[in-house]
Design goal:
Helix 3 packs across helix 5. Strands 2-1-4-3-5 form a 5-stranded parallel beta sheet. The chain has a single domain, classed as SPOUT methyltransferase, trefoil knot domain (Alpha/beta knot), CATH 3.40.1280.10. By secondary structure, it is of the alpha/beta class. Helix content is about 45%, strand content about 20%. Strand 1, helix 1 and strand 2 form a beta-alpha-beta unit. The longest helix has 20 residues.
Length: about 150
């Protein structure tokens, strides 16, 4: 069983990239976490729906047969405790779960329709790099909650 975090593109800002890497590393100490960055589609000559479709196909390829959770501001909001329980239950079911974060134009509707769950990381739209940081931090926080460590106050 594994958790897959699939995101479009690499973080462009060095400080943000370092923060993301730090939380992904911390989270991987608690969970079987695989991080995959898929190529960001150049949008110079494509319509946004074409960009979403191409990036969605890449994300779907990484997710494979895993249970799909899409990060979407219109999704369900979970507290940190509820997210920790969700991860723990998934681990106990021994089922792969893929969390996907779309690119600058959002998620492909076909990919989103395949999702078992939509997860809101915030009630507003976040840049995809910030969404990745928030999700990585919550993976780490969830691990500390499950183990009863003092990070989550």
């Amino acid at each position: 069983m594994r958790f897959i975090l699939a995101a479009v593109g690499k973080p462009r800002d060095a400080a943000l990239a370092a923060a993301i890497a730090s939380y992904e590393l911390r989270a991987s100490r608690y969970w079987p976490l695989e991080v995959h960055e898929v190529k960001e589609e150049p949008a110079r000559s494509l319509a946004p729906d074409q960009v979403r479709a191409r990036e969605g196909a890449r994300l779907a390829g990484v997710a494979g047969a895993a249970e799909l959770v899409v990060c979407d501001e219109r999704g369900a909001s979970l507290t940190s405790d509820a997210f920790a329980r969700f991860l723990q239950e998934a681990r106990e079911r021994a089922r792969d779960v893929a969390f996907v974060i779309g690119g600058a134009y959002g998620l492909d509707p076909a990919l989103a329709a395949r999702a078992k769950r939509r997860l809101a990381l915030a009630p507003w739209t976040l840049p995809h790099e910030m969404a990745r940081l928030v999700l990585a931090e919550q993976f780490y926080r969830a691990g500390t909650i499950i183990r009863g460590e003092p990070y989550h106050k």
